[in-house]
Amino acid sequence: MEANRIRLRLYSAVLTLLLLLGSVGFMFSENLSLLDAIYFSIVTMATVGYGDIHPHSAVGKILALILIVGGVGTFLGVVAIITDTFVKRREELIMRQKLHMITGLFFSEMGNGLLKHFARLDPETDSLHKILKISNEWKNADFIEAAKGLKQHRFVIDSHRGNLFELREYLHKQADLLLRLIENPIIHEHGEFSDLLRATFHLRDELLNREDLFELLNSDRKHLEGDIIRTYRLLIFEWLRYMRYLKKDYPYLFSLAIRVNPFDVEASAVVKGP
Among the three residues 57, 89, 121, which one is the final residue of a domain in this structure? Predict the structure, then answer.
């Protein structure tokens, strides 16, 4: 997209220069008014050829040839770039929609459950509850503010608070889903989600390669807690981005997502009220 912007600026500059050159040139060589000179320059570059104005002098004819050759190529270049930009934007939109579908599958089948496992190990969940207690009233600014809050949040994991064996079993059961997601080429278009999947897979491997998760050396426990923090942090940020997307494009999916919010202690899928 950036390359197209540069090319568009370049072609537009050349087109403007040709128009300026033609207008000034025809004013002096053909004694045309400014309006007629601009009109004739545009008509010449577009190769419309109405015939109401045509060059009489040799200089005017040479200038017309320059405008035809240079103008047509430049104009077609501008049209091609604009068309290509719209096509790429459409492709990016479709790709983004597919990626969000995959992200939704991930959180529905695994991500939300994994967040709950991590939350049990997090002694600072109260502060996360305040940051991430999302409601229907949230606006775009609220999501931006929540992201800022997460960046300032100090992620801490205390593996003594939960059961690493249960976490290992949960990740092991989701191995097929993780493999299918990683094999999907669309995932590679989203660096943050790819990083999350790699971190999750790595955490799974770390846990599976330890026979006893109840009697760990302090150094080994700290290492595992570091792996959990890495995955936990990536997972929360991805969850927040996904919630923002649902709020914007799929209100009915967002409604369920906030009712099962893993960071809302009062969350319930049951719709309450009159």
Answer: 89
Tell which residue, 207, 185, 202, 200, has the closest CA to residue 106: 200
- State residue 236's pLDDT score: 94
**Residues of the chain below pLDDT 70:** 1-2, 49-50, 189, 273-274
CA dist 95 and 115 (Å) reads: 26
- Give the model confidence (pLDDT) of 17-72 as tens digits: 888 888 888 888 888 888 888 887 888 787 776 677 778 888 888 888 888 887 77
Examine the domain organization and report whether 104 and 190 are in the same domain. yes
- Per-residue confidence (pLDDT) for residue 1, from 0 to 100: 60
* Nearest residue to 43 via CA among 16, 17, 72: 72
* 45 φ/ψ angles, rounded to the nearest 5 degrees: -65, -30
How far, in Å, CA of 12 to CA of 27, rounded? 22
Contact 72, 43 (CB under 8 A): no
**Long-range contact list for 64-68, CB < 8 A, 24+ apart?**
66/18, 66/21, 66/22, 67/18, 67/21, 67/22, 67/41, 68/44
Coil, strand or helix at 141: helix
Q: Residue type for 60, please?
A: G
CATH number of the domain bearing residue 54: 1.10.287.70
pLDDT at 102: 86
Element (H or E) spanning 249, and its range? helix 218-249
Q: What is the DSSP string of 152-176?
A: H------GGGS-HHHHHHHHHHTHH
Show which of 42, 59, 89 is a domain's final residue: 89
- pTM score, two decimals? 0.71
To which residue do tokens 């390669």 refer? 209
160, two tokens: 């003594």
